[in-house]
Amino acid sequence: MNPTRTPLVGVFDSGVGGLSVLKALHSQLPAHDLLYVADSAHAPYGERTDEYISQRTHRIASHLLAEGASLLVIACNTATAVAVASLRERWPQVPIVAVEPGVKPAVALTRNGRIGVMATPATLRSEKFKHLLSAHGAGLCVHLQPCPGLAGQIERGIHDDPALLRLIDQFSAPLKEAEVDTVVLGCTHYPFVHAQIQQAFGNGVTLVDTAEPVARQAARLLNVVQPTSAVPRRVCLQTTGEAARLQELAGRWLPFECQVAHAPGL
Ligand code: DGL
């Protein structure tokens, strides 16, 4: 992957959701090779057990490090919630940037003190998320909305599918009822249906996602002082699912070229 020793950043998600973070990393890290693993054969993580999520996460992190990654980005709120502590414990020398629901920015943005959080069931039930909420959400009305099935539908890539739009309507309804003015997209899959979610809430509601701050944090840790315009470097995507499918989605969602392959032995 990295014969010229261009520094490599390893990125992963349960599937295609983390491509929203990869896009931000691509512009913040112009001189780094990027290797992304989509664990699509095992997605969605959000409805799996913690043991399963943790085992998959360790396996993929181990693969990315074996490929030469000098920094890991967990582009998955669910994997972060369940496994970031154990990953950091196992590889204390490796900088690991993780994504978590943007409760803190939402608190800064809300005007009426009513915030909604859409995320996977595994993220919302995690101790890590409970700590995040008590650190930043105290004194506000924060409405938690588990969205089982939503990441799985987005993973299919058909974003005007009536079944997907029905799920968005179903999960936005209780938050509209609660009159939230700010909604955290607490799963990296959800930004790919930003327009559909925005339409369900109406333009008065602000949607928050954390891809940009996560990419800036990676750039800080790598001492990238000034992002410049993109220079030639390699962006490789690997999937445990179908490579042709990932190729098709990446072609639609990413404004840069990538090599796509099946993930070896994962
Ligand atoms: N994209 C992931 C997240 O940010 C996980 C979605 C899933 O696999 O359930 O939580």
C-alpha geometry = globular
Adjacency order of strands in the biggest sheet: 4-3-1-2-9-10
Structural class: alpha/beta
Ligands present? D-glutamic acid
Q: How many individual β-strands? A: 10
Tell me the radius of gyration: 18 Å
Q: In percent, how much strand structure appears in the residues?
A: 15-25%
CATH architecture grouping of the largest domain: 3-Layer(aba) Sandwich
How many domains make up the coordinates? 2
Give a topology summary.
Blueprint: E1 8-13, H1 19-28, E2 33-38, H2 50-66, E3 69-74, H3 77-90, E4 96-98, H4 103-109, E5 114-119, H5 121-125, H6 127-136, E6 141-146, H7 150-155, H8 162-177, E7 182-185, H9 194-201, E8 206-208, H10 211-221, E9 235-239, H11 243-253, E10 259-262
Helix pairs in contact: 1-10, 2-3, 8-9
Q: What does this entry show, briefly?
A:
By secondary structure, the chain is of the alpha/beta class. It is built from eleven helices and ten strands. Bound molecules: D-glutamic acid.
Describe the overall structure.
With 266 residues, this protein is an alpha/beta fold. The chain has 2 domains: 8-99 and 212-262, Rossmann fold; 103-209, Rossmann fold, CATH 3.40.50.1860. 43% of the residues lie in helices and 18% in strands. The chain has helices at 19-28, 50-66, 77-90, 103-109, 121-125, 127-136, 150-155, 162-177, 194-201, 211-221, 243-253; strands at residues 8-13, 33-38, 69-74, 96-98, 114-119, 141-146, 182-185, 206-208, 235-239, 259-262. The radius of gyration is 18 Å and the shape is globular. 47% of the residues are buried. The structure holds D-glutamic acid (DGL). Residues 13-15, 17, 43-46, 76-78, 120, 123, 151, 187-189 line the site of D-glutamic acid.
